[in-house]
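Re: the 212-residue chain
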Amino acid sequence: MLDSRPDWKRDQDDAELMHQFNLSISKRKIYLHSSYDSEDGDEPGTDWRMANTFIKNLSILENSSDEGIEIHQMNMGGDEDSGYAIYDAIKACSCPITIFTHGIAASMGSIIPQAADHRVTMPNCFWLIHKGTSGIGHRSRTEAKQWAKWEEYSDRRMFNIYAEAIGHAEHWAGKDHSSVANSIAKTLVGRGDWIMNAWQAVDYGFCDEVLE
């Protein structure tokens, strides 16, 4: 269908859609960042609002064309379940996806990019890899044991995702998937928070290139 809107109206509508819903249909871009309307006014990070908005936006673009999609992310981490919902949606998308990381790709914000077909990081984006926090808290021993089992599974899931995505990098030459996953696990035990600049993230394989 021919778009009869004048250029200024089309540009204005696209800008409003971008700011209100983090989506540019004409440019096939999604902006993945925290919600501005969190209850306490603080940075909520990855949460159900981010995941729900993103999955809808991705579906809109996937259903409209099979052309490539750009995701622009600034993500300090957050809720694990919401992050994996975003990760799975990217993995399942039939369109080729390039993700750009801006500012910070921390915790869950470093896992989500691993689902994309191509990963680009900005030169001043820093990366943080870690195990995250425990949800065991003040629970009975029986409950604590169940939580501990779940957290062990969550750690293995994370290591396997990283290993699958970064194993091709020169740094890991000669190591198989299991060896890479074990190396990541040992690194996190020793460092706690593994912090990298953009070029280090490329060297280790967490992204493909620095946009300069």
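The chain has seven helices and eight strands.
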